[in-house]
Design goal:
The chain has helices spanning about 1-10, 20-25, 25-50, 55-65, 70-75, 85-95, 100-120, 130-145, 150, 155-170, 180-190, 200-210, 215-230, 245-260, 270-285, 290-305, 310-315, 315-320, 325-350, 355-375, 390-400; strands at about 410-415, 425-430, 435. It is mostly helical.
Length: about 450
């Protein structure tokens, strides 16, 4: 009983105080600079060529073009059955500006949120070793974030916001108090991504494992907000019966082992691979068994890794898609790598190995990231959309023709990479039902007539 009481009531050690970032400021700043340089070098072409990828056009650009939608529309708009407030509000705000700037601003918003997500681990207090501080953003930002879309697509920010939310929740375990601003920020993040339901069991675990009144109030807040969000999701989106379906259980297990634990790096995962991995994990846990803080955080991260699969496998999307896309396992992969980094950090703290060994582990992490990016090139690059700049310039040019005053309009469209049915397409001019639609022959455009839909 005394050991259990100590396990549940013991606060984090002094080294896990809120001053962790200040203590390692130089290395943290260096880590940020190195990561952003690596990101730019790896993905420079996509970063320098903004596009309207995936649902950026169909659900955002096309919907908010012209700035005619109200703020309340942006807040309550949820065509997929779940609320996604931050993305919609961002698209609503951008639509107020010059159309030529909008793809660029989508890119800036996505890149900023993506970088913040990759760097978020540095502010949790979970990583303190200098070599792991250097490794963490690169490992999580270039490998854990398993597609370039987290940096250049507004649509994919609904996954980044949930990862940020979970990092914020984890950061409270190394602090005695929760800043008041975290209450509205966390609520916004919860209502901006369907995967935020993962925060529900995590918060319950944190209340049970970390007995602290102020932090428990924050966790209760998260539970209430997530519960409200969950009740807002359309019922036909949720498929709880999948739990009892042997096919889905087998499919989820296969994905968990091959694509999360082994990061889809092996052509075939054998029993020997699984055995070696389990030996490594349980050896580390045995060595660190007296580190109650490590054990508690490991339980929390394990809940995140496994729980993050539920929103896909227990939803209608698993039936409709029939395959698992990178975004569906992003959060699980991210926190699996975070767990590995955290474990190595705690082992370094306990054994304090020679600096050369620590540097060797850092190099091993970098080689892992390099191998992962070679095997999965979509993590760093995707085909650019070269027509987007000319497309928005044509929209701006047509806007200057005064079609609305003449009760005329034109429809402009360009191709999307995928899905093709959500291509960028807008109506420029009069919105009146009796307005006359113009064709290519009706407009004398110096360029861009190819975008006019006949």
């Amino acid at each position: 009983m005394p050991n259990l009481r100590k396990f549940f009531l013991q606060e984090p050690s002094l080294e896990y105080s809120g001053s962790h970032f200040a203590d390692q400021r130089k290395f943290s700043v260096l880590s940020m600079v190195v990561f952003m340089a690596a990101l730019l070098i790896r993905s420079w072409e996509n970063i320098l060529h903004p596009g309207l990828y995936m649902e950026d056009a169909g659900h955002y650009f096309n919907v908010y073009y012209g700035g005619t939608r109200s703020f309340s529309y942006a807040v309550f708009h949820h065509p997929n059955g779940y609320f996604n407030i931050l993305n919609n509000v961002a698209a609503w705000a951008v639509a107020m500006l010059d159309v030529r700037l909008q793809p660029i601003l989508y890119q800036v918003f996505s890149l900023t949120l993506g970088i913040a997500t990759a760097l978020g681990i540095l502010f949790t207090g979970l990583i303190r070793n200098r070599f792991m501080i250097l490794a963490a953003p690169i490992v999580l930002g270039l490998s854990g974030m398993n597609h370039i879309f987290y940096y250049n697509s507004l649509t994919f920010q609904m996954y980044n916001v949930v990862t940020l939310l979970l990092l914020i929740i984890l950061s409270t375990t190394t602090r005695s108090k929760v800043h008041p601003i975290m209450y509205p920020v966390s609520a916004l993040l919860v209502w901006s991504g369907p995967y935020s339901v993962v925060a529900l069991p995590v918060s319950f675990l944190l209340i049970f494992l970390f007995r602290n009144f102020q932090r428990s109030l924050f966790y209760i807040w998260i539970i209430i907000v997530v519960a409200m969000y969950s009740f807002s999701v359309r019922e036909n989106t949720i498929q709880m019966n999948n739990i009892f379906n042997e096919h889905f259980r087998s499919w989820a297990t296969e994905v968990f082992v091959e694509r999360i634990l082994f990061l889809d790096l092996l052509n075939k995962v054998s029993a020997i691979h699984i055995a070696l991995l389990l030996i490594a994990i349980f050896t580390a846990i045995y060595i660190l068994r007296k580190d109650s803080f490590y054990i508690k955080i490991s339980i929390i991260i394990a809940a995140i890794i496994t729980g993050s699969l539920a929103p896909f496998f227990l939803s209608i999307k698993s039936i409709l898609y029939g395959t698992v896309f990178p975004c569906h396992i992003y959060i699980s992969q991210f926190f699996w790598l975070a767990f590995i980094l955290f474990t190595v950090d705690r082992l370094f703290a306990q054994f304090r190995p020679h600096v050369f060994l620590q540097a060797g582990v850092l190099i091993a992490f970098l080689l892992l990231v390099a191998a992962d990016n070679i095997r999965h090139p979509e993590k760093g690059q995707i085909d650019i959309l070269p027509a987007i700049p000319a497309f928005v310039r044509t929209i701006h040019l047509v806007e200057q023709l005064g079609l609305e005053e003449r009760n005329q309009y034109v429809i402009l469209r360009t191709d999307n990479l995928k899905p093709p049915f959500l291509s960028p397409m807008v109506r420029v001019g009069s919105m009146s039902k009796d307005a006359r639609r113009l064709k290519r022959k009706d407009l004398d455009l110096p360029s861009g007539s190819k975008f006019i839909v006949e």
